[in-house]
From TrEMBL:
Domain of life of the source: Bacteria
Pfam families (alphabetical): ASL_C2 (PF14698), Lyase_1 (PF00206)
Coiled coil: none
Domain Fumarate lyase N-terminal span(s) in chain numbering: 57-299
Name of the molecule in the record: Argininosuccinate lyase
Recorded GO CC terms: cytosol
Keywords: Amino-acid biosynthesis, Arginine biosynthesis, Lyase
Segments forming domain Argininosuccinate lyase C-terminal: 365-416
Originating organism: Candidatus Blautia pullicola
Organism lineage string: Bacteria, Bacillati, Bacillota, Clostridia, Lachnospirales
Gene3D superfamilies the UniProt entry points to: Fumarase/aspartase (C-terminal domain) (1.10.40.30), Fumarase/aspartase (Central domain) (1.20.200.10), Fumarase/aspartase (N-terminal domain) (1.10.275.10)
EC code: 4.3.2.1
Biological process (GO), any one: L-arginine biosynthetic process via ornithine
CDD domains registered for this protein in UniProt: Argininosuccinate_lyase
Length: 504
């Protein structure tokens, strides 16, 4: 009789509809198999706790630990008809340890808390890999910024020349949010790095478990206390995915700028041949397609994040919706890692043209603000009046299709007399100095401004911040490595002690 095989759990194993296997379970298993070593790690910690608390027979603990230790970090061929990683693990355990021994494996746990623990361990490592990639990119940005802090070019808003800045200032600006993203990663990991094991399905367990013990040997910072929240919480997944998307958006903004810099009209920069695509029909094309790829991935993952948010908007309970969303979380973070690595390559390879960058300044009036500020600082004029004078002069030049060389003392004096009924309170020398783009950048010397001196200071501060963050990451990784070493040490000691007892 069918009922003799047990309950529904036993009856359905290996009998999932083949269409469901082909179109859902199979593709999902192919993506999720990388998580198998983390599952083994969690199960080994759980069995060690069962042994410590004498919850299951010593013989069962010994055999379970032997098999788990032997598996290590290998990823076996998995059967998608068995639904998920855990059922595959249990099936392999039956084959190697026997059904009786394997039957002790589910004691005091559920797939829910095991999966939650596995995800947290995998995610903390994945996020730290993203932090590594961000750190490497930021170092390259710092290097290129230091090289170009005197290379001036127009800063733009809405495609219009706004103010003269330096390329070093621009690149240092790309580095600043990257460091904030690193900080977000560390804060995120510290928030979710708590042990969900012991929550079981959702309400804990009646067995005399030790959750602090499994927390310690899995590198968790204590216990995720509320049992239901431990297995149904979605915020840490969404936060991790959000960080991945934030990084990608920052990279996309850099990529967009570089695409513009590489245009024929700008000519500020060019990429090396190994980072450009050409055209199958237009021989002259040097397309920065790699930058467009980064930009497109940011847009795609932003869409994925919207899907994650929707999938997680379910009742306060364990759900396949969130399980499905997990792969998109991983995809967001993994994509951010990859695009960081690619971005580092093309930032490193950029060939800037200081001559073209400066030349383009003379096609606009980005020194207008400097002229207005000089009227205030040197001429004692109220700013709004100064703004009207400079704005009126430039408007006239626009109408007459004239350029930078015609923005002179005489024209400014004319507009000053018209607006203020007095002569321009600046000498010709002062006007020419204020018009000088290099002077305009150098005068912007308040904290955080575009002057080379300030760029140097900001780069130094960013480097100090990066060093602090990387040291923290290194120390955390050391903690996790020590915890993992302790886990395997305890497992081996237990196995050896059992062998010694039997031999005696």
């Amino acid at each position: 009789m069918e009922s003799e095989k047990g309950g529904f759990f036993e009856q359905i194993q290996g009998k999932i509809n083949p269409v469901a296997v082909k179109y859902y379970y199979g593709p999902r298993m192919e993506k999720a198999d990388r998580s198998f070593p983390y599952l083994v790690q969690v199960m080994e910690a759980h069995v060690l706790m069962l042994a410590k608390q004498k919850i299951i027979p010593e013989k069962a603990c010994e055999k379970l630990l032997e098999v788990l230790e032997a598996w290590g970090k290998d990823i076996p061929d998995l059967d998608p008809s068995l639904e998920d990683l855990y059922i595959n693990l249990e099936q392999r355990m039956k084959e190697q340890a026997g059904e009786e021994i394997c039957s002790y494996l589910p004691v005091a746990r559920s797939r829910n808390d095991v999966e939650a623990a596995m995800w947290r361990i995998e995610l903390r490592e994945l996020l730290y890999q993203l932090a590594d990639a961000i750190g490497d990119l930021t170092k390259i940005l710092h290097q290129r910024a230091a090289e170009t802090k005197y290379d001036i070019f127009p800063g733009y808003t809405y495609g219009q020349q706004a103010q003269p800045i330096s390329m070093g200032f621009q690149l240092a600006g790309y580095g600043a949010p990257m460091l904030r993203h690193m900080e977000r990663i560390l804060e995120c990991v510290d928030r979710f790095n708590k042990n969900p094991l012991g929550a079981a399905a959702m309400s804990g367990t009646e067995y005399p478990i030790d959750r602090e013990f499994t927390a310690n040997i899995l590198g968790f910072d204590g216990v995720w206390e509320h049992a239901a929240d431990a297995v149904v919480s979605e915020d840490y997944m969404m936060e991790a995915a959000n960080i991945g998307v934030l990084v990608l958006i920052a990279l996309a903004r850099q990529a967009e700028d570089i695409i513009n810099w590489c245009s024929n009209e700008a000519g500020f920069a060019d990429l090396t041949d190994d980072l450009i695509d050409s055209s199958s029909i237009m021989p002259q094309k040097r397309n920065p397609v790699i930058c467009a790829t980064v930009r497109s991935q940011a847009r795609i993952m932003a869409g994925r994040y919207a899907g994650i948010s929707t999938a997680c908007s379910v009742g306060f309970q364990a759900s396949r919706d969130m399980t499905a969303a997990w792969e998109d979380v991983v995809e967001c973070v993994n994509t951010a890692i990859g695009m960081c690595r690619i971005s580092a390559e093309y930032v490193k390879a950029l060939r800037f043209s200081a001559e073209n960058m400066e030349k383009i300044l003379y096609k606009g009036f980005s020194n207008a603000t400097e002229l207005a500020d000089s009227l205030v600082l040197e001429g004692g004029m109220p700013f709004r009046q100064a703004h009207k004078i400079v704005g009126g002069a430039i408007s006239e030049l626009f109408r007459e299709k004239k350029g930078q060389e015609d923005l002179n003392w005489e024209l400014l004096d004319k507009w000053c007399r018209e607006i203020c009924r007095k002569s321009l309170p600046m000498t010709r020398e002062q006007v020419e100095k204020a018009k000088n783009f290099h002077v305009a950048v150098e005068r912007r010397n308040c904290q955080g401004a575009a002057a080379p001196e300030q760029v140097e200071k900001m780069l130094e501060h960013q480097k100090e911040c990066l060093d602090r963050l990387q040291k923290y990451i290194s120390n955390r990784r050391k903690q996790w490595e020590e915890a993992d070493t302790e886990l395997h040490k305890l497992a081996k000691e237990y196995i050896e002690s059992r062998h010694n007892e039997i031999s005696v």
